[in-house]
Amino acid sequence: xxxxxxxxxxxxxxxxxxxxxxxxxxxxxxxxxxxxxxxxxxxxxxxxxxxxxxxxxxxxxxxxxxxxxxxxxxxxxxxxxxxxx
Length: 85
Prior knowledge:
The protein is mainly alpha-helical. The chain has a domain at 28-60. The chain has four helices and no strands. α1 (2-13) packs across α3 (40-60). The radius of gyration is 16 Å and the shape is globular. One of its GO terms (molecular function) is DNA-binding transcription factor activity. InterPro entries: HTH_dom_conjug_TS-like (IPR024760), RNA_pol_sigma_r2 (IPR013325). This is Sigma-O factor regulatory protein RsoA. It holds the Pfam family HTH_16. Residues 7-62 form the Helix-turn-helix conjugative transposon-like domain.
């Protein structure tokens, strides 16, 4: 799952419109559940804004520096992170 998502993000970063659309559709159910707390008009506006934020986040996402568990355990001490093999 994680590898497929990273592959999809890479395609989206390369302006693959199908990959971008798939990412938006993948997260749409969670987005819509969250938006149910707002009025219908706000839902449409917020949904469009969230879609734009997803596209922006994908474009900015750095696939070379993906955080691992050690970054969360010791965020200020990268020397504690073991070397990958």
